[in-house]
Amino acid sequence: MVAVFNKELLSWYLITLKIKETLQLAVPSSPSSSMLSTEFQEQQKLQQEPSESLHITINEDGEKFQEWATSPESEWMISTKEKLEQACQDDEASSWDKLSIYQIPHYLRDSSSDDKAYVPQIVSLGPYHHGKRRLRQMERHKWRSLNHVLKRTNHDIRLYLDSMNEIKERAISCYEGTISLNSNEFVEMLVLDGCFVLELFRGATEGFAPLGYSRNDPVFAMRGLMHSIQRDMIMLENQLPLFVLDHLLGIQLGNPDLKGLVADLALRFFDPLMPTDEPLTMKNRNKVESSEKNKTTTTTTTCDPLSEEDGLHCLDVAFKLDETLV
Where is this region: Disordered (predicted)? Predict the structure, then answer.
């Protein structure tokens, strides 16, 4: 047993010597040569980059294999930096500063059993509720309003479609989330919904009869569905950008650069006393009448609630009106 033990010990000793000899052959004999060796440069790189480690493997034939391995801490740091870089790119590429028409948060939808507080019941305006089954009945009245506009102005529909096509990207950037309409559908929606809103605004100020509507019209009259339509028009998800309405009204009046008049018309339409025959406050009535008289010659008309900044949409105008009258 002693002889066997000594034989095994001798074998391990010889293996150890062989490994030691192999390692000595792999190390340069002089400092000058080591400065030029690739291994020394790799060791320097290892010292400069502590986040990485050099793994050296020697097989039975004495061949050496090298492999750089990244430590877990380095992977975490790289991942963190990548996330920060992505956040920076998202900020630069985003158009959040242009958003003005938002969707109701999901937690409000889920917590409410009654969607009448934020879902239109009569008419859809904009892309969020466009095409919903229960709102389709009002679509034929929208087409009637567009037909009235074209007949009254003697314009071709292409004039309005082409005009909206030029500003569609700006309009799309106002809406939060994904829009299900394609480009042509979106442009048509802007023209149809926009002209419908303008007919209501102008009818509330000028009267619907001068615009060509019957006194007993189910929609374009100061009775009937007007209260319900007005309520739908101040819902957050049921808005059109104000610049779209300005553009459409400018085309109708022969002044494409017209700005501010739609806000004045909205003030009349969203007056708390509308649609009764009670008058506006004298201050706002004078502003609306002045705007109407000068609508074909003035390029910019503003009212007090919008004197500091442009209105975003009709709901924004209604809020500003409320703040002014309080």
Answer: 280-305
